[in-house]
Each structure stands twice: as structure tokens, then as C-alpha cells.
Amino acid sequence: MKITVKAFATxxxxxxxxxxxxxxxxxxxxxxxxxxTGRYEGLxxxxxxxxxxxxxxxxxxxxxxxxxxIADLGTPxxxxxxxxxxxxxxxx
Length: 92
Prior knowledge:
The protein has 92 residues and is an alpha+beta fold. The protein has helices at 29-39, 43-47; strands spanning 2-7, 18-22, 48-50, 53-54, 59-62, 65-66, 82-86. It has a five-stranded mixed beta sheet, with no helix packed on it.
């Protein structure tokens, strides 16, 4: 399966703005994040508060839908998916 990942804001400082990756059937967002954090030094510290626990306000969208409302890190990936990674943002 081919998956496209787009990074926004501070995530762009440690990884490519957009990347396409191939994954076997049955892969999940957890699989994707494991691949990305192994590939990009510093990304794991930005994304995770503890193993398997995303930092507060990190948003991951699968085709525009927040994975929190699907199956969190267990959200299955499908061929052609667009995954968007948004770090916490401060406002004012």
C-alpha cells in the first residue's frame, strides 16, 4: 500500500514536508509512526510523551479525519491514504 504523509509546523523541522511510503496490508498508524520515528531523529520526542502515548494536542488525520475518532494509533491504513501530522500549536 502506498501512503502519503504530510508534516506541518514544527514536525517539518525534523522530517520531510511530504513523503510517500509503502506498507504491507494490515498496517496501522502505529506502524507508520514507528517507521517515521526510526527514520527521523527527534520526531519521537516531539510526538510522544511516553511509548505509545501521543503528546497532548498532537493531531493525526487520516484523509481529513482525526484518528482519535477512528481507532487512535490502531487506525488501519488503506492504499492511497493521506496522513497529516499536526504538532501542538500555541495560540493567542
